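dude i think i finally got it to work??
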Amino acid sequence: MENEPTKYCTTCGKEISSNADFCSYCGSKQQSVEKNDIQQPLTEKENSVTENTPSSSDSQSKGKWYQTKGGKILAFALVVFGIIVIAGIMNGKKNPNTNDIAKDIQSNVFDGQEEDYGKAKIKFDDESGFLVDLPKDSNAINQLEEGYTANWNSLVSSLEEESKSISEDYNNADADLSYIQVLVPGDSDHVLLEVDKGKVKYDKADDFN
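look at this
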């Protein structure tokens, strides 16, 4: 019956010709069927397309990778990794490396400015903040002592910007990292400048105004 329209016996269920009035297997009389009700055999090409076309449920199942066992494990790992990264960033903001901040101040303010500031040194103290030590023979110090404040004022502006930036970046830190002082050369008990949160608290140059 290959390529011939077929139907199934209403009694025994065997496949028989769609035109048969009686079943060739059990002899039962068959009910008449409309032409549109006859099952048409698929061609080889149509059958191949049908077999190779995934069902909508299969497509949905394959598309939702996160619903598979491996996908769930991967998704969980990504969430944990994200939490660790965020926690690390927050901890870095709360407890930053003061040596790194000192290096940033050194790089942003003093590197390449040895002619004006000499070989400046910066260190952090838990109680006093960042302490800047300028050589006594630097131009900025010598000129300040003589009442010429141009280089000194430039230094003050730069440290104000650094203090403000630190205050904004580490406002949740345990210590006040935006507090910057410039020491009197050779005298760690007295200062020439105090800056906190981007604002000047004391400036030796004000004595010359």
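The two ends are 114 Å apart (CA to CA).
im so relieved honestly
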